[in-house]
Amino acid sequence: MRGEATPAQIAALLTALRVRGETPSELLGAVRAVRAHMSAIAAPPGTIDVCGTGGDGQGTLNVSTATAFVVAACGVPVAKHGNRALSSRAGGADVLASLGVDIAPEHAAETLARTGLTFLFAPNHHPALRHAATARAELGFRTLLNLVGPAASPANVRRQLVGVFAPRWLVPMAETLGELGAEHIWVVHGHGLDELTLAGETQVAAWQDGGVRQFVVNPEQAALPRAPISAIAGTDAAGNAASLVALLQGMRGPYHDTVVLNAAAALIVAGQAADLAHGATLAKAALASGAALAKLHTLQKHL
């Protein structure tokens, strides 16, 4: 974090941890170190983040970015932490840039206070991680830092929907965030995705009231039909941006339903929905009414 290690030393550390297998205590220590060096922003009480680790290799459309617009349209403050492409061909930051959404760090807190939604581009708020950038790029595989990102929200949120690339990290991620003061967390892995999925069951580790509860959810609980992961395959930044706009304009189908399912889970975490069916109803209304699209327009107007 202080730039005192060479890229080769950083790569050696990350590789050794990956080969041996990172431990929950190492994840907790790494998150504490990254949080200690991040550029934080003020956020109102009840703010939520919806963010995944990336690294699932599925190349889907941008689910968590779209989910942020829907959840914010339901009246929940959202500080969406994200980055450029990791497991998709176009990351949330790539898509937002193509849509003209401002992600400048000096505007983040003010934008959140005024609009109820802001996007936190990870490199803007974690400048210390630049020291590991070369090593990570050259390694080209998932490392401990993929897991650290979603657990190091610059808004210090205490409620969060987190997707992880492998089921073995469900409980450790939930426990790490709980140890760091979280109120309510869902950590999810959906049939190979770091999202809730329509393709089958999604595994969940939920932190609340000082402990972790594990369970599975399925699309039918939100009255949504199943669909294969291939139904939400993404393209490049321009293509994914066009799909996002079409979704917010009322397009139906698997992308719509996937976002509704994820938004429903986020609304449970935020304390706004009693269950997935209730959350899905709220999310569908936010899309159908144009409220989610209005959030995009608001952010585009304030450049």
Structure description:
The protein is globular. The protein has 13 helices and seven strands. Helix 3 crosses helix 11 and helix 11 packs across helix 12. The chain has 303 residues and is an alpha/beta fold. The model has no long low-confidence stretch (mean pLDDT 93). The protein has a five-stranded mixed β-sheet, sandwiched between helices. It has a two-stranded parallel sheet with strand order 2-3. It has one domain: Pyrimidine Nucleoside Phosphorylase, Chain A, domain 2.
Characteristic terms for this protein:
303 residues, single chain, globular, five-stranded mixed β-sheet, two-stranded parallel sheet, Pyrimidine Nucleoside Phosphorylase, Chain A, domain 2, alpha/beta
Brief write-up:
The chain has 303 residues and is of the alpha/beta class.
Assign the CATH superfamily. Nucleoside phosphorylase/phosphoribosyltransferase catalytic domain
Low-confidence stretches: none
Question: Count of helical segments?
Answer: 13
CATH topology: Pyrimidine Nucleoside Phosphorylase, Chain A, domain 2
Helix content: 40-55%
Integer count of domains: 1
Terminal CA distance reads 31 Å
The CATH architecture would be 3-Layer(aba) Sandwich
From the spread of the alpha carbons, the general shape counts as: globular
